[in-house]
Design goal:
Membrane topology: Multi-pass membrane protein
Largest sheet: 2 strands, antiparallel
CATH topology: Amino acid/polyamine transporter I
Organism: Bombilactobacillus bombi
Subcellular location: Membrane
Order of helices and strands: HHHHHEEHHHHHHHHHHHHHHHHHH
CATH superfamily: Amino acid/polyamine transporter I
Helix content: over 70%
Keywords: Membrane, Transmembrane, Transmembrane helix
Main location: membrane
Distance between the termini: 16 Å
CATH class: Mainly Alpha
Strand order of the largest sheet: 1-2
Structural class: mainly alpha
Number of domains: 1
């Protein structure tokens, strides 16, 4: 592929922003303020910090191995096929959940259309859950997402660039209009008690439960497109940093605009009693800004569609990449010869996303499932980055991170805390879905006569024990996070920090040299040649 066909820095940032700004902004601010009151603004800063710290590790690995669907493969290079499978599976579960979450967002906004002709849409949502008729509409939207991707990649990129301007413009317009038409800074409260009406624990919980981590999650679209990026050694890190910073500023301003534009009399019964089905549109109608409400109803189609469409592509690539790792049936990795798209993987994902939404029927539940699954996949990032330095010091590193020895353990601890904040029983449900993948892994290992199985098992044991321990901690943890309160808040946080540091050191010292590591070396040589060619130009 020639350089002029590859993605420039501008197109990487636009693609990442288009994926980042999906349904998170349409619901996140309201979900977070309902949980934490005005202190929800801190949840967004914390969520951005967690994802930023995790992304830092991936910049080094992503530039060492620029390849399509890379997020599903890195752990395999450092720890062998079992950890690679768990990380790939968890990452894929999170990607498959994004498809229905965006469809649910669209349907939830549709259900509050204020026009008389649209009364029939009211039945789509009841008590914050998608009804059976709403579910049918969600299924139709998932099918449309898949069909847009079923054609060529150019159709997908034209579609996403066209709407990314609308997607980025509307949140900014919403911030300006709401702030100009209704500004009550007093809603932040005049003392700590009013700023933290429900204490500090909900500020932490909101990062996972209100879909904040989900809203920042799309940095991985840049990493998954590794082989299609111009000057990957420079642009991968820059693209992620710029897009996360822009999205972070937009999210913080949106949350602030949401907090300050609510009429103080609406807060008489507290933040927990603000009930919106279509938060910003309902707020615009409450303030009498009907034209903005109409734009928001349109955006509730456009934003989720943009994100849903781009993630159908990512999820299909992730599934095809797992087949490449040798633990899924071959037909899933089959590429369409004309367009180089894994169409079968796409159809399988569409069916599974329908199953997902039938099980978890609300936006916030899907957002929590997604955050927890994503974070479990991300746990391998810092561990892999550090383990590769130990087992492959000779590998070419286009970017050698200066502060990896500090950021890697920090990001592992932050990810562990955020998994715990997803709250029991969601934690065990997600970990259950991830452990469900193990029989598939064992089936394929048995077909390969368990070659080097012991080596792979020992290298990945830390992760299996970790998942069991974190489930037990979630069950016995404080009431604030849905547990049995055997561990009280905030001591439960301290226990998680200490235990996860132990697992981080176990994991980062478990790296092994396997056949996959040898394959990674070849890919790394290719990255080196690319970098030399870029420098020569």
């Amino acid at each position: 592929m020639h350089n002029h066909r590859k993605m420039s820095l501008f197109s990487i940032v636009m693609m990442a922003l288009s994926a980042l700004i999906g349904s998170g902004w349409l619901f996140g601010s309201w979900e977070a303020s309902k949980l934490a009151g005005p202190a929800a603004i801190l949840s967004w800063a914390l969520g951005g910090l967690i994802i930023g710290a995790i992304a830092y590790n991936y910049v080094e690995i992503g530039t060492m191995f620029p390849e399509s669907g890379g997020m599903s493969k890195y752990a395999q290079y450092s720890h062998g096929s079992l950890l690679g499978f768990i990380a790939g599976w968890a990452n894929w579960v999170s990607l498959v959940t994004i498809i229905p979450i965006e469809a649910v967002a669209t349907v939830q906004y549709m259900s509050t259309w204020p026009w008389e002709w649209a009364n029939w849409t009211r039945q789509f949502v009841a008590h914050g859950q998608v009804t059976t008729s709403g579910l049918m509409v969600v299924f139709v939207i998932i099918i449309i997402f898949t069909l847009i991707n079923y054609g060529s990649i150019t159709l997908m990129t034209h579609f996403t660039s066209l709407i990314s301007l609308f997607k980025i413009g509307l949140p900014i317009l919403t911030i300006i209009i709401l702030t100009c038409s209704s500004f009550h800074p007093g809603n932040y409260g005049s003392n700590l008690q009013e700023f933290f009406p429900y204490g500090t624990a909900p500020v932490l919980a909101a990062t996972s439960v209100a879909g904040i981590i989900f809203s920042f999650n799309a940095f991985q679209t840049v990493i998954n497109m590794g082989s299609e990026i111009k000057k990957p050694e420079r642009y991968i890190g820059l693209g992620i940093t710029i897009s996360l910073l822009i999205a972070g500023v937009i999210y913080l301003l949106l949350q602030s605009a949401f907090i300050t534009s609510i009429p103080p009399k609406s807060l008489a019964n507290g933040w927990q009693h603000i009930t919106f089905d279509s938060p910003f549109a309902d707020l615009a109608i409450l303030l009498g800004i009907n034209w903005l409400a109409i734009l928001l109803y349109i955006d509730a189609f456009v934003s989720p569609f943009g994100t849903g469409v781009s993630f159908v592509a990512s999820a299909a690539r992730a599934l095809a990449a797992m087949e490449d790792n040798g633990h899924l049936p071959h037909f899933l990795g089959k590429m369409n010869s004309k367009y180089r798209i894994p169409r079968i993987a796409m159809v399988v994902n569409a069916i599974l996303s329908m199953v997902m939404v039938a099980l978890f029927r609300s936006w916030s539940l899907l957002a929590t499932v997604l955050s927890a699954a994503t974070l479990i996949a991300y746990l391998t990032g810092p561990v892999t980055a550090v383990a590769l330095r130990k087992i492959g010091p000779q590998l070419f590193r286009p970017i050698k991170l200066k502060h990896l020895s500090v950021v890697a353990p920090l990001s592992f601890v932050l990810a562990s805390l955020a998994i715990y904040w997803s709250m029991w029983p969601t934690t065990i449900e997600v970990i259950g879905i991830i452990l469900l993948g193990l029989p598939i892994y064992l089936f394929y290992e048995q077909k390969n006569h368990f070659q080097q199985f012991r080596l792979h098992w020992q290298a990945s044991l830390w992760m299996i024990v970790y998942l069991i321990v974190i489930s037990l901690l979630s069950y016995g943890g404080s009431h604030e996070f849905g547990g049995q309160n055997w561990l009280h808040y905030p001591w439960d946080q301290l226990v998680i920090v200490v235990i996860s540091l132990g697992f981080y050191y176990w994991g980062s010292h478990s790296g092994v040299i396997t056949a996959d590591f040898e394959q990674a070396k070849k890919l790394n040589q290719k990255a080196k040649r690319l970098a030399q060619k870029d420098n020569a130009e």
